[in-house]
Amino acid sequence: MQRIANLLICKDDQVLLLKKPRRNWYVAPGGKMEAGESILVSAIREFTEETNAIPIQPHLKGIYTMVIEENGERKDEWMLFTFIAKDLEGTPFHETKEGVLEWHPVEALHHLPMAEGDRTNLLFAVQQKGMQYGTFVYTTDFSLIKETIQQSSEGEVNNG
Question: Domain containing 83 — which CATH number?
Answer without folding.
Answer: 3.90.79.10
